[in-house]
Amino acid sequence: MARIGDVVNLPRCEDCGKPLRDSRYSKCYECSQRARESGGRSAGPSRQFESYLSRLAELGYFEKRAPQEKPRMRRELITEEADMVARTLADAGVAAGPLRRFFTRARYLEQRLGEEGWDAVANELTRFDPLVTSLVGRAANSQQRQGLELLRKFVCANVALAEDSEENFRKGFVPHFESVIAYFTYYKPR
Fold this sequence. Notes:
By secondary structure, the chain is mostly helical. It has helices at residues 29-37, 47-59, 75-78, 80-91, 96-116, 118-126, 128-137, 142-162, 166-187.
């Protein structure tokens, strides 16, 4: 139930979700200024990105197949969704360094699987969350913080899924992350 002073039935900014005063616009003043300064790119997460996160949590990395068949990774995680995630991170101003550090750490854990087993690697995967959260906390300004928050959402959603099993980690998380890095390099070349 609405309270006195609540804004009711106003359209919302497509980037930050604040109520808009005029229904002719799709973004609030602050978000349109940020978009103008960054060359027309949106400062907030896209609806596609949020939709990707919910699909990932719901469907996982693999296609639903008969129990006797080997699991097969969902094709869109290697192509369309990896492309969209990379574009979203690049547009939000995420630098290649932090993204590559997390991927390098994932590759290192993949190598350790043979030596130490899944339990040790799963414990190390848990450390991704505080590390990426610390990175967001050290952001120099609010725009950089918004971009790193998208990186945090991406990393945490994928780590939560990868922690479920060695197969999710090795055959889902790592190839998906590798594809995101490949597309990211296209959108943000050196």
